[in-house]
Amino acid sequence: MRDVTSPTGPQVQAPAVNPKMDAKNKATAKNFEAVFLGQMTSMMMSTVDQGENFNGGNGEDMFRGILAEKLGNSIADRGGIGLAPMVLDQIIKLQQGNK
Which of 2, 40, 70, 92 has its CA 20 to 30 A from that of 30? Predict the structure, then answer.
């Protein structure tokens, strides 16, 4: 544990961060963002008019969900939209018993 001091209050012990748990929490937050982005991409793709010339038929329909999932993972791997850090913050607060 490390000491945390406040100019207005007594000294408080902050819990030490377990490196293994920290890495797991970061991966969980990133995966959450990837799933969210995949779902958003899937909804976005469902609103696009495919037209007659570039419609892939049943094959395209079957793999559209996989494409949306992969796009979500790719966006999250490249930094995402900033959702993962907020999710990570909430995970840590829940683990520490803070609401």
Answer: 2
Structure tokens at 21: 């748990």
Band the pLDDT of 1: cuts 50, 70, 90. Answer: very low
Q: Are 68 and 41 in contact (CB under 8 A)?
A: yes
- If DSSP codes are grouped into helix, strand and coil, which group holds residue 97? coil
Backbone angles phi, psi at 77, to 5 degrees: -65, -25
- Cβ–Cβ < 8 Å for 69, 15: no
CA distance 72 to 25: 19
Parent domain of 94: 39-44+59-98
In a domain, 34, yes or no: no
Q: Give the DSSP per-residue string, 25-54.
A: HHHHHHHHHHHHHHHHHHHHHHTS--TTTT
pLDDT, tens digit, 9 for 90 and up, residues 54-68: 677 777 878 889 999
Domain count, the chain: 1
**Does residue 5 sit within a domain?**
no
